[in-house]
Amino acid sequence: MTADLTLVTFGAGVPPSPDATPDRIGNKAHGLVQLVAAGLPVPPGFVLGTDGCQAFFRHGGLLPQELERRIDEGIAFLERATGLTFGGTRKPLLLSVRSGAAVSMPGMMETILNRATLPID
Fold first, then answer.
1. Which of 31, 40, 50, 73 could disulfide-pair with 35, CB 3.0 to 4.6 Å?
2. pTM confidence score
3. Which CATH number belongs to the domain containing residue 51 in this structure?
4. Which of 56, 76, 53 shows the shortest CA–CA distance to 65?
5. How many distinct structural domains can be found in the chain?
């Protein structure tokens, strides 16, 4: 079994986690967590730690069960925080997905923006 992978939630009155360091969650997410800590209004969100990416590669590019569980936990947090449902047909929860790392390498990672639950043809 994979060790418990990092999942950091933020916004919706959740205090910043001690796991929310740039090395663990990347610079973009760390910046959002710092905004929350400063008391600025930030929409609720979650970030999977860089250990999630490492687990993905260790499993040959397949999604490990532990990583899938952590994604489900993050989505459940967003559903509770927003009152919306991921995959819902009326006012669905929409996600914006960003890649991140402790060290930025422009052009090295593909970023998927505004990921909805509908197929893209």
1. 40
2. 0.78
3. 3.30.1490.20
4. 56
5. 1
